[in-house]
């Protein structure tokens, strides 16, 4: 317990799934974040996928429009975003307490940044973290230069205040959960050092303070302001944060937030953002109108969809730049493993379903841009490469083969004289559900599968269910196959812990977002529990990670289908230097806090707005 802590920066790919399970956007937990990401026309994209029509046939002169903004256009980055409803509150710990994707992310800094574009972990508010040998203490060192945008110092006392405030407050977003389960106390031996005393060993508590998917699960709050406030009522307006931008004004009638460069930013020797202003504004709900605003360079990013971008590209629009980045969540099929649901509980049946899944076709023709198949239950980020095992992937090869599917089906549910497949005396008929509407991609994925299942004698019903209805049936296990998206993890054990048998509820009882597949495997449970107390990068963890991955391949409680690509579209009329497919120097998503690194790379073209 008295051994010297060990700084841990050499291995950066262990950091993320619980961020989705614990984080909210405008008050809805993981589901809200997933929906918010999807709504923003770009939850990620590819490192190599490029639209086939990315070369314009001709070039035309553009007409610059007059952006409806209160700042000089040539000093402003303009971002088209979702429909805002909250304008006078920035308290992200309560429902509807803060507008998601409105630029608060440019003011809110984590202790560390993890970039899925580069695989790099960057110390920020904190300079390092370290655990003692048995992972019962976490020590964090804070940058002595750090201060809030009101000039007050930022450090270990703010960390202690925030963590202890949230520890026993499950009613607050970021509260309860791992902080309650693991944190005993926080000691502050000096202004720049915090030592977290843990109730039980964990090598992953620091994940809570890393901005990986969107922002960190836990963001620091200034003690000197919040200690006298009721966190369930305080509006935090204007927000006191530490980032390179601070709020200048929120304009309700224009559904607009204006952020201004902070001249006293504490870390400008490492990060010098170029635009004096960044404006986030709700876009027109009419796609043609939003696209016209982009074409007239009234917006730099966010105001155009793939369909209109294709039209502009084909027309020779010269200032359109398309950049791709994969979503943190591959599209997957969740398979119900509970014996009460019948044949889907058979691992051979799940493999038969897998053989009926034409990933290549789905990736090339169903998704809005061409994307690669998914094999592992995580995104194909550089940070995740270390969790792969190609020998296992080849041993349990994913391939589209109706012949192999038929052979397995004939073994476990042969046809009766009437040609109907039977399992334990009952006709086989699978129920597929999806939260996607009939014109959306997840529905189309399920429809492709349904067609191929029919070819091998397995009829299936496919139903599109509204959000709340779908969530209830999904959580209660009232389905055979669900077509949606995966959870997100920094290391595999964060996925595996939710798959343990102890978290498998009976059909009809809410799974509370844990083990929604009702998967049960005693050996898998044992390995997962061992991994929970290990540094995932350690030598002793590697064989256990491989063993759990092999059980996953053998039993297939979920089927990864495709990586999820959403192109980002940038306008180069006023600003250049955006991330490109060839130079993906940072995550290109404007609603992630990582966007500050994009803003630091931009260069003004000298273009002036109309008088």
Question: Explain this structure to me?
Answer:
The chain is α+β, with helices and mostly antiparallel strands and 611 residues long. The chain has a domain at 331-562: Dipeptide-binding Protein, Domain 3 (Dipeptide-binding Protein, domain 3). The protein is built from 17 helices and 23 strands. It has helices spanning 17-22, 29-39, 156-167, 177-182, 223-226, 287-295, 306-314, 347-355, 359-366, 390-395, 402-412, 441-455, 467-475, 493-496, 522-532, 541-555, 595-599; strands spanning 6-7, 76-81, 112-114, 121-123, 126-131, 137-142, 183-190, 193-198, 210-211, 245-251, 256-261, 277-282, 320-326, 331-335, 422-423, 426-427, 430-434, 460-464, 481-485, 558-562, 565-571, 575-576, 603-604. A five-stranded antiparallel β-sheet has the order 1-5-6-8-7. A five-stranded mixed β-sheet has the order 18-17-19-14-20, with helices on one face. A four-stranded mixed β-sheet has the order 2-12-11-10, with no helix packed on it. α8 packs antiparallel against α11 and α15 packs antiparallel against α16. Residues 1-57 have low confidence and may be disordered.
Could you list some keywords that capture this structure?
single chain; 611 residues; alpha+beta; Dipeptide-binding Protein, domain 3; 5-stranded antiparallel β-sheet; 5-stranded mixed β-sheet; 17 helices; 25% helix; disordered N terminus
